[in-house]
Amino acid sequence: MPRDVDPRLLRAFVAVSEELHFTRAAARLYVAQQALSRDVRRLERELGAELFSRTTRQVALTADGERLLPYARRVLAAQDELVAAFTGPARPLLVDLNSPGLVFGRILERARELAPECELMARFESGLTGAAAEMIAGRLDMSFGRYAGLDPALRSALAQQPVRYEPMAVLLPSDHPLTELDAVPLDALAGETVYAGAGNPRTLEWTDLAHRLFAGRGIGVAPPAPLAVGPEEFGRIMAKKRNPALVVVDFPAMPGAELRPLIDPVPLSPVSLVWRKGLIHPGVTAVRSAAAELAAAEGWLEKPADGWVPATDALIMMSQI
């Protein structure tokens, strides 16, 4: 007598018990009749009991089959309950939106409309590198960011869906001369040292993007600064350090700072929706559908003619893993 019985074998047994017909039971389970018959025979061997009496005209439960049926139903009900607790709408789905005010919040709101039965929870912590480790560990479900900037070992455990080419901008101290411009040409930052998250282990993909963008343009990446959480602290550190910061055009307003879009070329932050491979939850489908819907409606994946993005990122943004 085995210590463990494969639930698949019990499902085959219950289906045949209720249909009393192998062909109908196989159709109900979407399996071949031969596979169903094989599973029933295997269960009989493992239990050491004949569960069905079979003739050319009918199938009937034996006494042992009648005895097994209520147990099998209880086991399958418990398994279904267990699976639902971890993959169904009852389990909250935690989605990292990076910062309040970004377009990712709109995606989550639309996903809530598409799946009102799901509890889709938002959190706000910057950095896809940090989020990736948490997704792999099961502490976070989905996030947004530059997938190409992740270490290949992280990418191998994650799936992604391209969402947006997000135009980049520079956040300047309010009294910086470049605030007189409506948009800042990238070459106008030559000689500047721009903050891009250097030293923050959660945002390695963003710092890498800055290095690629600034290479050969005479623009430096600022050394690590204290990690500021919240607009007040960010504004205070920025006022103290006096470094412009590389951000995206939807970056929330900060005290004592002015945001200007970058042009000539327009640098683009390639954003993907990222989640752990194998994650099963109806909320994942809702978030993916919402992201695809908004991206199509608003042209988020259309690159401007003068847009800049690393070649490796462009390739990944044309794929879905």
From TrEMBL:
Domain HTH lysR-type: 5-62
Gene3D superfamilies, per database record: Periplasmic binding protein-like II, Winged helix-like DNA-binding domain superfamily/Winged helix DNA-binding domain
One Pfam family matching this protein: HTH_1
Keyword terms: DNA-binding, Transcription, Transcription regulation
Full protein name: LysR family transcriptional regulator
Cellular component terms per the entry's GO annotation: protein-DNA complex
InterPro entries documented for this protein: LysR_HTH_N (IPR000847), LysR_subst-bd (IPR005119), WH-like_DNA-bd_sf (IPR036388), WH_DNA-bd_sf (IPR036390)
Family: Belongs to the LysR transcriptional regulatory family.
GO molecular function: DNA binding; DNA-binding transcription factor activity
Alphabetical list of PROSITE patterns matching this protein: HTH_LYSR (PS50931)
